[in-house]
Amino acid sequence: MSKRDVQHKTGFELLQKAMREEYGLDIIESDITSDKNGKPCFVSYRDTFFNISHCDGLCCVIVSPDEPCGIDCELIREHRPNVINRVFNDDEAEWFGSLPCCDRDRYFYILWTLKEAYGKYTGKGIADMKNVSFALNNGVLTSNKPQLDFFVYNRDNYILSICTKKGTSSECIFGKRIY
Fold first, then answer.
1. Best CA proximity match to 75, nearest among 5, 179, 174
2. Domain chopping of the chain, boundaries
3. pLDDT digits (tens, 9 = 90+) for 133-178
């Protein structure tokens, strides 16, 4: 089985676990379809939203009743400088460029996962990454989307970011280290 197959299988197993433990529902793959933008959704449980992310060595799932949600995870590694101008706005790129070189990889993936989580929240994916911007001032993260909450977790050389509607408190997150 390829790495990608393992990631997809693990993501679905985590979703099954979340749905069983949080909602008492047993799901199978045919319970999932895609909306008009290609975002995965449930066929029958239209009021329950989920999102899956995986990267090299980690898979995570978020499930939220009644509200869209987005999640993204990445292994911190050397960033690709050519991506910065395609994804970051001018202020973000300027801030990023002012960072010490030793901090750039970590902060690149913090911004990347935040933007990816937002794109997954909206259902528009990476096409929506420039529509959200972030600033980090004195350790406080702010965005140009005050109606949304963003969370960042940094553990074991992984960054995991979440985007939910402000005040959504009943999301559940399941993660699993793989291979």
1. 179
2. 3-177
3. 999 888 788 999 999 999 999 989 999 999 999 987 555 677 777 7
